[in-house]
Automatic annotation (TrEMBL):
InterPro entries: IS701-like (IPR039365), IS701-like_DDE_dom (IPR038721), RNaseH-like_sf (IPR012337). Coiled coil: none annotated. It comes from Paractinoplanes aksuensis. This is Transposase. Residues 19-325 form the Transposase IS701-like DDE domain. It comes from the Bacteria. It holds the Pfam family DDE_5.
Length: 461
């Protein structure tokens, strides 16, 4: 959006910002908040502080101080933005996902060599987990968390016996950590860093980025549940939750949703184990001592791929789930219909986590759910799988529509990164990162509000 376009929506922006920044105590903080939103929405290749300040005609230190050292409550802004987003969008689903922020150096908070779907490979990056509200017409980010890798948590450094104090950390193999600086060619002989020195290095990095002591490594699926709990504290609850296989394959994540009374339809991997929907546990002979054993399924659990292959592709029915949006660049992709071939089976997810979630005096019957399978015509095996606890009378068409509703968040990430500078923050502090992404999310919400309430306003695609 150019200066003229921003001027045309100046009144709407002022009213919107007054609501978002109502909790900021000082008028200069509220004014700088509006200025930062303007900088994010103004046309420009970079949305880091110095280029934004130049376009706004202000000292970049003013923006830097607002992000890194000013005393305003970023959680309050996130809460007001999330509440406004749910009210505006009236979401059909919430979506959990994560995205990567590529970095060149080692100093940004929680940067590490890790896999990023954004990069499509292992690279030097930050990873953020997010929760979105979505319909087919609109979407918005509700909450963010910056992932803390094991290399940024001294409680993940194993002792001489290979044990770690962080309960979420995997049992680490003792691998040598090099002393050479990032970017320099590694010598053929690798020198292992002593444990005490590794801890000192981690503590120094955490202190430099001002990472709160309570922020520790934990898996991304647990961070997603934490955000869902935080949103519930704000009186925001998902109508249904969906996620990709990175989350859906984790039984603890699915069980966490069930424990919170949240319906879900989540992608999973072909190796997920289940019992067939019509399977029944059989009594186990009593040994004569101790408590009576719980009935057990006579046959071992099978992978969902095995069940799908046994079912075969002949029962797969074509389902259309939405119209494809035309590409923004001419000649790239025409508009059309998105459809595929699917079938659904009733299954009973297996595993220790599911069993532990059963009532104490249970009869051994595992809860049943939907297995949704996509099998492209002509392929030798299915391409995608989903699990869902939606009611048994849910139609195949509705299952497919909901399973495919994740597409909207790709629009969120694309708009936030290419248009609003989500990944342009160059600071090193933990609080600065969270404030920047919160303000970028707030700017996107303002543009979404314009699209839904005033489609002819400037800045529309």
């Amino acid at each position: 959006m150019d200066e003229g376009g921003l001027e045309q929506v100046r009144v709407q922006l002022q009213e919107f910002a007054a609501e978002m920044f109502a909790g900021l105590r000082r008028i200069d903080q509220r004014e700088t908040g509006v200025r930062y939103l303007r900088g994010l929405m103004l046309d420009g290749a970079r949305k880091s502080m110095q280029p934004m300040a130049a376009r706004l005609g202000v000292d970049h230190q003013q923006l830097q101080q607002f992000l890194t050292s000013s005393t305003w409550d970023v959680t309050g802004v996130r809460r007001r933005a999330a509440t406004a987003a749910v009210s505006l969008i009236e979401p059909r689903v919430w979506v959990v996902d994560d995205t990567g922020f590529a970095k060149d150096g080692p100093a940004s908070a929680c940067v590490a060599r890790q896999y990023s779907g954004t990069l499509g490979k292992v690279g030097n990056c930050q990873i953020a987990v997010s929760v979105h509200a979505a319909t087919d017409a609109a979407s918005a980010v509700l909450d963010w968390r910056l992932f803390v890798p094991e290399s940024w948590d001294e409680t993940c450094v194993p002792d001489e016996a290979g044990k770690v104090t962080n309960i979420h950390a995997k049992r680490l193999r003792r691998q040598p950590v090099t002393l050479d600086e990032a970017g320099k060619k590694k010598p053929h002989l690798r020198k292992e860093v002593p444990r005490e020195q590794r801890i000192t290095q981690i503590l120094s990095r955490r202190a430099a980025s001002k990472i709160p002591d309570e922020e520790r490594y934990r898996p991304k699926w647990l961070m997603a549940l934490e955000m869902i709990d935080e949103l519930a504290d704000w009186q925001l609850h998902p109508p249904l939750l969906t996620a990709d296989a990175g989350y859906g394959q984790v039984a603890e994540f699915r069980q966490g949703l069930t424990d919170r009374g949240i319906s879900f339809i989540v992608a999973t991997t072909s190796t997920t184990t289940v019992q067939p929907g019509d399977a029944e546990p059989a009594p186990v002979a009593y040994a004569g001592v101790g408590k009576y054993p719980t009935p057990r399924y006579p046959d071992p659990a099978r992978t969902i791929k095995d069940l799908a292959l046994e079912h075969g592709p002949d029962q797969a029915a074509p389902v259309h789930w939405r119209e494809r949006l035309p590409a923004t660049e001419a000649g790239d992709r025409p508009a059309g219909t998105l459809s595929g071939h699917f079938f659904a089976l009733r299954v009973r997810p297996a595993g220790r986590t599911v069993r532990e979630g059963l009532p104490p005096a249970d009869d051994g019957v595992l809860p049943d759910c939907w297995l949704l399978v996509q099998w492209p015509p002509g392929d030798t095996e299915p391409s995608d799988y989903w699990l869902s606890d939606l009611p048994a009378d849910t139609t195949l068409t509705n299952l497919v529509h909901l399973a495919k509703s994740r597409w909207r968040i790709e629009h969120d990430y694309r708009e936030l990164k290419t248009g609003l500078g989500l990944d342009h923050f160059e600071g090193r502090s933990w609080i600065g990162w969270h404030r920047h992404v919160t303000l970028a999310t707030t700017a996107q919400l303002f543009l979404t509000q314009l699209r839904l309430t005033d489609p002819k306003a400037p800045g529309q695609p």
